[in-house]
Amino acid sequence: MLLLTIILLGYLIGSIPTAVWVGKSFRGIDIREHGSKNAGATNTFRVLGKRFGWLVLTVDVSKGILAACLPHFFSYMLEGYKDEFLILQLCGSFSAVFGHVFPVFAQFRGGKGVATSLGIVIGINPYAALVCLAIFLIVFLSSRYVSLGAIISALSFPFVSYFMIQEDARIMIVFTVVLGVMVILAHRKNIDRLWKGEENKMNLFAKKA
Hints:
Elements: H1 2-14, H2 18-27, H3 41-48, H4 50-69, H5 82-101, H6 114-124, H7 126-143, H8 146-164, H9 170-186, H10 188-196
Helix pairs in contact: 1-4, 1-5, 2-4, 3-4, 4-5, 4-6, 5-6, 5-9, 6-7, 7-8, 8-9
């Protein structure tokens, strides 16, 4: 019952369609009908500007952190069950990413799960999150491709985590690989555009007209 509760709560948290609600509330538009037509922070930056972009990014990252921390709210039931605690963390985390990509509150048309995945990594392994964030920033700032930064950091995540896990936790390795694959699969169209040289670049420092 606790496992199902964590999975459901994680999915509902992930399903909060921040970009969709911000677009409709402040600009009266559905963000999924503009720009890259993706309900994520990057498209919000592109369509609505930096103020709303940072808002969406912050909330989406927070969704991941909250989902990863869900078992802490039930820690009184898990004293002495370290492995079970980790399994619950990972289940809640996967559910949150799935909810972000297929949100029940937005007709199952969501984002790509990158910001929420970052929040999950922060909640579970903050040191690995810092390294992956640094990799993302290096790739993004040098190329101006958000998608390329997300893809490279997702590919790096399993390797970074492997060297930063402080104990034998093979399930964590499986988790990092699956999460990385999920992020990459969500960027299939971006990979195709990158290959063809058609992907849009982004400059966070430019002022929106």
